[in-house]
Design goal:
four-stranded mixed beta sheet, 18 helices, five-stranded mixed beta sheet, single chain, alpha/beta, 15% strand
Length: 432
């Protein structure tokens, strides 16, 4: 089962966390609303997250300390792990049947698998008094069968971040609006001696973004969301998406050594953009902060534009792809973990997250803290969106998402074909 599809104009904001409880004193037994903790009982909450780059790297430990100061009986064990390593770690934890108290989740099919395994706390009753303060669209990826299993702290979309100075050098006056114009921009950049695109080929998921968006633009969002029930990706629109991606790959647009490049490291995709070495990257709303963390940042030279439409395609520019981050709790997490989620999901904390320029708002009223022009553009694109698709490696069951990443990476590396990509994904999807 996939996440509930979004097709409303109210969509706004996205990014991540996780944990395991080690109570110093045994907790009292509780009901479905969570284990009860007395006001004096000492409780340790383990919080697993992916806050390894700024601004979260500095801000989140600070917030954990603030919560501890206000709740002397609670100790938070803060465990931050890099994105890809975190995913592998959580796969192992899920297989072991034991999840951390508080853990980062992107929602969708991966969270659903953990729920079906009986590992995740149903938060519906606990959050009922205050969940209405959150934007409904931001919550959608964490709701299944009318029940709430996670609380978002960020939400957003993927699009092209570009270097205005390098575009000007290639005499590109306006960001491309169609795929044909995009390929022309690639040729113009190469002709001007500029490396067009930064890509973290080693991590695979950044390359998946291209195929996912092209599938949406060619086949249309309804066709992609229909695969949640049909498990069939062999339609001509999906094959054509791969052919368009191969058109791009054949232009040799990526930085040298991209197949071995990671995303957040000092020589990875974000740093290539942050140090002004490449003209574009296709990335989510967190891109500017990671560019500045991994590199120097390019300041006012940074711009944003949505993924282009494809001539003759069924999709529209207002259908967006992306997601955010949220927290879920292990089934046996203590009551203090539920209280922490309420605190972290408050307007006060969301305002601080938005002020850090690394997150989009998820609480009603926090949007007033957006000051960065590019993040305002992203927010407005979300407000005006007419359809939304969660990251494919999170929206679908884990095995399907991994096959999408692997197959698309093979296509980009020249080791597969558009037809083989759709066949491999379909075979995996039907085997689940």
């Amino acid at each position: 089962m996939g996440p509930e599809p979004l097709s409303r104009r109210t969509f706004l904001s996205a990014a991540g966390l996780a944990g395991l409880s080690i109570p110093i004193l045994s907790a009292c037994g509780g009901d479905d609303s969570g284990n009860s903790d007395s006001a004096t009982e000492q409780v340790t909450i383990e919080w697993w997250n992916i806050a390894t780059t700024e601004p979260g790297k500095s801000l989140w430990p600070k917030l954990a300390k603030e919560y501890e100061a206000a709740h002397p009986n609670v100790k938070i064990k803060f465990v931050a792990t890099e994105n890809d390593a975190y995913k592998a770690k959580m796969t192992a934890q899920t297989a072991s049947g034991k999840l951390p108290d508080i853990f980062h989740t992107w929602g969708g099919g991966v969270l659903k698998q953990q729920i079906d395994a009986g590992l995740v706390k149903d938060l519906t009753k606990d959050v009922a008094p205050w969940v209405g303060t959150l934007l409904p669209a931001a919550l959608a990826a964490y709701k299944f069968d009318g029940k709430t299993y996670g609380i978002p702290f960020d939400t957003g979309m993927v699009g092209f971040w570009y270097n205005k100075e390098l575009f000007a050098k290639a005499k590109i006056d306006t960001p491309p609006a169609t795929w044909a114009e995009y390929l022309e921009a690639i040729r113009a950049l190469k002709g001007a001696g500029v490396t067009p695109i930064a890509l973290a080929g080693k991590e695979k998921w950044p390359g998946m973004y291209y195929w996912a968006y092209l599938a949406m633009r060619v086949a249309g969002l309804p066709a992609l969301q229909q695969t949640y029930t049909t498990n069939d990706f062999n339609g001509p629109g999906f094959v054509q998406a791969g052919r368009h991606l191969k058109e791009l790959v054949d232009l040799d647009p990526f930085q040298r050594g991209f197949l071995n490049a990671s995303y957040p490291t000092s020589d990875g995709q974000a740093a290539q953009m942050g140090n002004g070495k490449t003209a574009m990257e296709l990335m989510g709303q967190w891109a500017p902060s990671v560019q500045s963390d991994a590199g120097k940042g390019i300041g006012d030279d940074l711009g944003f534009f949505p993924f282009p439409t494809v001539d003759g395609g069924q999709g529209t520019v207002t259908e967006v792809f992306g997601g955010g981050g949220g927290h879920a709790l292990s089934k046996d997490a203590p009551k203090a973990a539920v209280d922490f989620l309420k605190w972290f999901g408050s307007l006060e904390i969301d305002r601080r997250l938005v002020q850090s320029k690394g997150y989009q708002p998820v609480v009603k009223g926090a949007e007033s803290e957006l000051t960065d022009p590019n993040l305002k553009v992203v927010n407005q694109a979300l407000v005006n969106s007419t359809g939304f698709q969660l990251f494919l490696d999170q929206g679908f069951p884990p095995a399907v998402g991994q096959e999408v990443n692997d197959s698309v990476a093979a296509l980009i590396a020249g080791k597969s074909t558009p037809e083989k990509v759709t066949q491999a994904i379909t075979q995996t999807a039907k085997s689940q």
